[in-house]
């Protein structure tokens, strides 16, 4: 396929948009420039392929398609059926899953679908049984009351937030923390690693209905075989949220005990992080949960997004190609090179390194908060995000960590040498930044001092680093 085709497609699209609202066309163009020029180390972001992006911009967006393939509540869904079935087939083949549900609009939505599927499957409720067999009209008010009482307040055990867990794993700011009685397992304070004996102990004491594995900010592999054994020992359903590392599972970097799909009853994911697809979510599950999962819309989700399902089919087809496995391996190689580069310059890393796509820098070693470090790096053209570290003294807002990830830069083609240079830039900025003070002289957790000349110099070095690896080399909007 000619690179010219990509330029023509995006240029023409912008021309059509410009005729209606030029400011939107300008913003889309400006976003490409910004993404091209910044050193993107946000662990949850990536760059989807032009084919994936183009699959989203069309009339599939106009279709309503509630229901499932071949069983829709709307007429005329034959083409939506084609793309949804394709996306699900690619997902099953790619991950070796018995069932794939590709309708969730995001990772959080996928988790809600999974939670309701597990509740519906597991909770012993005569009222629910009636509701399940579609005798909804036969349910009395007392049945509904019982159903609400029985479904609420079930127990969930997940990874604690400051150890890298996700808000949707039962934490109070999220609906999951209001639905479930939640306990969390943390990491060993000495090593920063999950202590499986303590997870087992917590499970024995708490007897959760659902044990959740998966994370947003844990830089190590997780042994899903052991977590499944723990779940089985207490009769819990084992769910894994692989939102962050689905690309490493797809690319067969995480296999055996570290591949969640053969071990979990149900697996949720986003499609836009390391998997490099469109923004969206997905649920994979064992056959016994499939019926409940397929009720995601309209139980939990709004109408499916057929244009995004089309893009999921494209991205999953890409992920099944051999070069995706190379990509996934390079993500991890790059993260390890970045970790080495930081360690050799004296940085402190949570767990002392990484075996996945992310590195968590404990910036208290630089006498900064995560917020100060994040802003100072941003001033210097390096895009990261602040993140809690285990037992973080600065809480979830200011934090003491910076999370950096390699999926995006690896897509651009940067390798180990560039990761070492990136480490040098990060270390330079963090050593040259000092904590600021409030007006009354007390130490501030947000203000910082960084010489503007140095920030500019680093920003230029970051741009130089990227110059050899253009983003979307086939797209020229000029
Ligand atoms: C990113 C993430 C999500 C949420 O995904 P959205 O698409 O933003 O809703 C859920 N779980 C984990 C573990 C994540 O990292």
Notes on the protein architecture:
- The chain is an alpha/beta fold.
- Helix content is 47%, strand content 14%.
- The protein has helices spanning 3-18, 22-37, 50-56, 78-95, 107-122, 126-132, 141-151, 175-179, 196-206, 224-233, 246-250, 287-294, 296-299, 306-319, 322-344, 370-379, 395-398, 407-412, 416-432, 452-467, and strands at residues 39-40, 67-68, 71-72, 99-101, 154-159, 180-185, 210-214, 237-241, 266-270, 281-285, 358-362, 382-383, 385-387, 401-405, 434-437, 443-449.
- Strands 4-10-9-8-7-5-6 form a 7-stranded mixed beta sheet, with helices on both faces. Strands 11-14-13 form a 3-stranded antiparallel beta sheet.
- The chain is globular, with a radius of gyration of 23 Å.
- The structure holds pyridoxal-5'-phosphate.
- Pyridoxal-5'-phosphate (PLP) binds next to α5.
């Amino acid at each position: 396929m000619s690179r010219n085709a990509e330029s023509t497609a995006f240029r023409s699209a912008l021309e059509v948009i410009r005729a209606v609202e030029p400011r939107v066309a300008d913003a889309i163009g400006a976003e490409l420039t910004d993404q091209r020029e910044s050193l993107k180390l946000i662990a949850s972001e990536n760059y989807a392929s032009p084919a994936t992006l183009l699959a989203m911009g069309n009339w599939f967006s106009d279709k309503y398609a509630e229901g499932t393939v071949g069983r829709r509540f709307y007429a005329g869904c034959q083409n939506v059926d084609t793309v949804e079935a394709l996306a699900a087939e690619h997902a099953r083949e790619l991950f070796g899953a018995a069932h794939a549900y590709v309708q969730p609009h995001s990772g959080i939505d996928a988790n809600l679908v999974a939670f309701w599927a597990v509740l519906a499957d597991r909770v012993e409720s005569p009222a629910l049984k009636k509701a399940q067999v579609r005798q909804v009209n036969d349910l009395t008010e007392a049945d509904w009351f019982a159903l609400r009482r029985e479904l609420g307040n079930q127990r969930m055990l997940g990874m604690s937030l400051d150890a890298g867990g996700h808000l949707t794993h039962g934490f109070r700011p999220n609906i999951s923390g209001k639905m479930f009685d939640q306990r969390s397992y943390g990491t060993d304070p000495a090593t920063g690693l999950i202590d499986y004996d303590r997870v087992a102990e917590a499970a024995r004491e708490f007897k959760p209905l659902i044990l959740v594995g998966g994370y947003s900010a844990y830089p190590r592999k997780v042994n899903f075989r052991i977590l499944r054994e723990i779940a089985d020992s207490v009769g819990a359903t084992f769910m894994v949220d692989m939102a962050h590392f689905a690309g490493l599972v797809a690319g067969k970097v995480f296999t055996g005990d570290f591949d969640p799909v053969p071990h979990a009853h149900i697996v949720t994911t986003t499609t836009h992080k390391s998997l490099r697809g469109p923004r969206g979510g997905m649920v994979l599950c064992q056959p016994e949960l499939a019926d409940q999962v397929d009720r995601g819309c309209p139980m939990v989700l709004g109408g499916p997004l057929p244009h995004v399902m089309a893009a999921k089919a494209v991205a999953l087809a890409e992920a099944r190609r051999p070069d995706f496995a190379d990509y996934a391996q390079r993500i991890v190689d790059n993260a390890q090179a970045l970790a080495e580069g930081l360690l050799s310059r004296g940085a402190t890393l949570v767990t002392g390194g990484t075996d996945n796509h992310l590195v968590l820098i404990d910036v208290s070693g630089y006498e900064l908060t995560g917020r100060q470090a994040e802003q100072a790096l941003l001033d210097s053209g390096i895009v990261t995000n602040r993140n809690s570290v285990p037992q973080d003294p600065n809480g979830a807002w200011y934090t003491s960590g910076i999370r950096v990830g390699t999926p995006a830069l690896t897509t651009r083609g940067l390798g180990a040498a560039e990761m070492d240079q990136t480490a040098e830039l990060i270390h330079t900025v963090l050593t040259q930044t000092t904590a600021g003070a409030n007006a009354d002289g007390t130490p501030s957790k947000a203000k910082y001092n960084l010489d503007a000349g140095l920030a500019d110099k680093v920003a230029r070095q970051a741009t130089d680093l990227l110059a050899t690896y253009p983003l979307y080399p086939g797209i020229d909007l000029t």
